[in-house]
Amino acid sequence: MNRTIRMALCAGAASLMLGACASTGATEPDSTPAARETRADDGSVPFASTYERYPGAPTALVGATIYDGTGGEIRGGTVLFADGKVVGIGDASLAIPEGYTRIDGRGKFVTPGIIDIHSHLGDYPTPSVDAHSDGNEATSPTTPEVWAEHSVWPQDPGFSRALANGGVTSLQILPGSANLMGGRSVTLKNVPSRTVQGMKFPGAPYGFKMACGENPKRVYGGRGRMPSTRMGNFAVNRQTWLDAKDYAEGDRDKRDLAKETLAGVLDGDILVHNHCYRADEMALVMDMAKEMGYRVTAFHHAVESYKIGDLLRENDVCSAVWADWYGFKMEAYDGIPENAALIHNQGACVVIHSDSENGIQRLNQEAAKAQAAGRRLGIDIPDHDVIGWITLNAAKAMGIDGMTGSLERGKMADVVLWNGDPLSVYSRPEKVWVDGALLYDALDRKRRPVSDFELGQPGEGDVK
Amino acid sequence: MIRNTLMAAAAAIAFAAPAAAQDFAITNATLATGDGSDPIEGATIVVRNGRVDAAGAGVTVPAGVPTLDGTGSWVTPGLFATVTDLGLWDVGAVSESNDTRAGDSPFSAALDVAPAINPQSQHVKVSRAGGITRAAVATMPSSSIFGGQGAIIDTGDDPDPIVRARAFQVVALGEGGARRAGGSRVSAHALFRNALREARQYGADSRISGTASRPPEQRTGDDMPLDPRLVDNRTERGDDVLLSRFDAAALVPVVTGAQKLYVMVERAADIRAVLALRDEFPNLDLVLVGASEGWLVAHAIAAANVPVIADALDDLPESFEQLGATQSNIGRMVRAGVKVALNASAMEQPRYLPQFAGNLVALTELPGADGLSWGQAFAAISSVPAQISGMGTGAGTLSPGAMGDIVVWDGDPLEVSSTPVKVYIDGIEQPLENHQTRLAERYRDLDESDLPKAYDW
């Protein structure tokens, strides 16, 4: 798509913007947003994904309880996948084609691969030493020009824990929240690789990290520069957007890394992920987005979303939340365990996120805690919907739901076989497939990734 | 005998004013006694005069004791959270509300959390609602390798949270200690030895710097004698360099073994170095805190009979002192005979204790991993931390005579979907409301058709 057409589609009034350029809907598996991506002079996409799926046997998971991620639930069901794709899903009557390896799933559970929409793995890897602190370019309140992928250390041992203990098959790596505009995120397949390009999720749109509230004003106000207040936060953001609109509406001939990213947001190609805790502040951010002609895809952390579930529903903005973190900072003081359930109850979109190299290993448990808190308030959300909080809803908000996030025919075979109910504390992933390749098997001690960093160290290859 | 269905109609029970302990019994419940054994189904517990009277299968309820039908619920001792900062802060990043560290303090070992603890803190209330009835509270080393003296508290809704003041001293001897000692473990060990030698000398010598002889020991009503030099100024030390007089005096009970020493340490080699301190200071009553690589030296820890307050689910090389971190750490140490409690400071909030314990049970199903049985896991958040804290079997268990800290759950307490429905401390039923429950009630719906939400309370 050339720039003229893009302008016609997306540079209109805010109301048109929301319709024409909304990007959280289904992305077709073969659609490529690359046509409007940042390009090198020779027209190539810089830092393009080199990921290719690993070989996998045609596999039939038989007899398990299946949560398909869309809200579907089949007891004693069958999931078929081959050549990296889901081939079929159904009850016990589903025929298993010749040549499929049968895996007995009786007493076990199958879900789509778990997706973490908010991770800093690779950007803040372990060991957490200063030399590894690559997640915040905290030298200017707006750094749309930085790309998180340029900080990702593929040898972060955290990726393997997320896979083996958390069943995580896709994740979004975000810049930190020191800046109002932190930079581009990158979506990864949770596949060990020598390079970050080898992990990049093919066809995933970029995200753009923004942050409101205490962090930017503290970081920069503390240095005697703008912003030092919440009103300063908005002023800096709005002026930056106005300048970006000038660029976006021009010929864009001169390359400008920061403006290219902001224009990508205004075009609707890059999805805004906005760190924001307080309800009143989220409401202001949604109005700023309308004023400037972009859309907020998801508020992250969003501990007060429960106060404005109606507004979030009307604006079609997801809330990516913890189950029950609260109190660590003033803007987190009103966090409650019922947050996710109350948002869901208002008909708004819930995603459970981790923001933690530890929490990412237990997103299933966090979802279960949030579900239970709702039940105690009289809000009963079925298990198969709760699984959507850590699969399809995350995929939607990352713009990859056309490719993964649910067990539907033709989608990527990103699959977890759990040894019990994934919403129970007593269950663990038994096998994890990424694009149909078995990358973790609890029953095969060699079928687990060990990063370069861990070779020759105490506990190399341990269950961890 | 008054009978009622606990889950449905507990409010109908005619318990008296909340400030008084009431005799009560619960029947037909699943009972976990906290002593490491498996849960008992269809069991009964009787609480009288604020203490456990009897608990188990086949227990008879004495005539006249109000009885609740516990069908479908679980009954356990209150959880014991160690180590925590409960009552020391309101908002983490609001420094004026946060007493967990004192990096600019002139004191270190002499710091005593007891007078600072606020029993009305929301975190105390939230933890109580999570089933935690007792906790160890400490300030973390900040201005020095020594963090100061921690207290044991209860989380009861009353003005007196302190169960035992100055129950333990905290010292950091790993990377954190090295940083605070000037930049190396070498310096941390030198500082530690210097401090303990000074304290030993101080404790032995009644005449320092030519001042008066030791006055009679004073007691403050709890188990820990208050060192007299903490309450007067009759002794002077003219040659303080690294340790103030007040700090040196505070370390006297550490070096004599009268006060426990919680040592924050992770690396296997550092653990060995800590165990070796007893060669020099034989009376040290050591407790290891953290101990990510404890499994690598589990037999040495067991042989030294040193208990551990361990991080349950750390499995990443967060630092170079945790390269061997694994979730199997606790299982392996317990198998080697080490007494291990779960470290509440190694999780986002103390109320995650049951979840973390449940994760250790899950490990028993994972080939190559080492976990805990259900009973062991529950003990690691109840009786074991109570014992490590010097409470004997008086807390964290349902032994006859134990404190009447009872939690009634709506399901398996280690399961993430379960929650306490009733909490008793010393036999007194506790309120479970807090800022969070009030917010959830207010925003159960978003209806403001009559008045703003501010009137909904």
TrEMBL record, chain B:
<dbReference type="Pfam" id="PF07969">
    <property type="entry name" value="Amidohydro_3"/>
</dbReference>
<feature type="signal peptide">
    <location>
        <begin position="1"/>
        <end position="21"/>
    </location>
</feature>
<dbReference type="InterPro" id="IPR050378">
    <property type="entry name" value="Metallo-dep_Hydrolases_sf"/>
</dbReference>
<feature type="region of interest" description="Disordered">
    <location>
        <begin position="203"/>
        <end position="230"/>
    </location>
</feature>
<keyword id="KW-0732">Signal</keyword>
<dbReference type="InterPro" id="IPR011059">
    <property type="entry name" value="Metal-dep_hydrolase_composite"/>
</dbReference>
<feature type="domain" description="Amidohydrolase 3">
    <location>
        <begin position="328"/>
        <end position="427"/>
    </location>
</feature>
<protein>
    <submittedName>
        <fullName>Amidohydrolase</fullName>
    </submittedName>
</protein>
<dbReference type="InterPro" id="IPR013108">
    <property type="entry name" value="Amidohydro_3"/>
</dbReference>
